[in-house]
Amino acid sequence: MTLRAEAPPATTEIPRFTRAERWVHRTTGLLMGVCVVTAAVLYIPEFAQLVGRRELVVRVHEWAGLALPVPVLAGLASRAFRADLRHLNRFGPHDRRWLRAALRRDKRRLSRPAAKFNAGQKIYAAWIAGATLVMVGTGLLMWFTHLTPIMWRTSATFVHDWLALTIGVVLAGHIGMALGDPEARRGMRTGSVTREWAQREHRLWRP
């Protein structure tokens, strides 16, 4: 008598992000990408010569930068998005434990407890939000030059340029982390993740 092998249990999927949350992330990422690419064209001579049309590039850069806060502001209409903002804004004992493990380069999962978002994601979200506001503010000072003293414009240009470079480095790290976690990318792309991944990477999360 031949015994039939039992089929492995189907992978259980759980919702992680709603359509509104994914729209906010994608639109913000697109605008940020436009800002980074146009900034590179404006400040790297080789790119500037390749593209040309500097005045058009400047206008695209300005309007993309001005629009950066819009997706987040529109996302506030979503209850799920507001709930995620509350999660990102809370830093608990488990987050401090996660950070201590990260500083010690301790990669054991049990030493890095996380709820829906880990401590690194919370710090990144807070930093990029603050950096975006500073970039918009300094960009406006550079755009409307007739409204401010020259000292303000000079300072704004200095802060804008160096912060832009820092944002480029941080975004590269963010993209690198995402490339190393296909399941996290799938969660942002489709809105769902496997329960196994959630229990492994975010064991304190209760969806």
List keywords for this structure.
mainly alpha; 207 residues; 2 strands
Q: Strand share of the residues? A: under 5%
The biggest sheet amounts to:
2 strands, antiparallel
Task: Give the tally of β-strands.
Answer: 2
Average residue-wise pLDDT: 90
- Measured on Cα atoms, how large is the radius of gyration? 21 Å
| H/E series | EHHHHHHHHHEH
Low-confidence stretches: none
Q: What is the CA–CA distance across the termini?
A: 44 Å
- Helix/strand/pairing class, anyone? mainly alpha
User: Widest sheet: strand order?
Assistant: 1-2
Number of helices: 10
| CA-based shape | elongated
Instruction: Estimate percent helicity.
Output: 55-70%
Describe the structure.
The protein has 207 residues and is mostly helical. Helices cover 70% and strands 3% of the residues. The protein contains ten helices and two strands; from the N terminus they run E-H-H-H-H-H-H-H-H-H-E-H. A two-stranded antiparallel sheet has the order 1-2. Helix 1 packs antiparallel against helix 3. It is elongated and about 55 Å long. It starts with 12 loop residues before the first strand and ends in a 6-residue tail after the last helix.
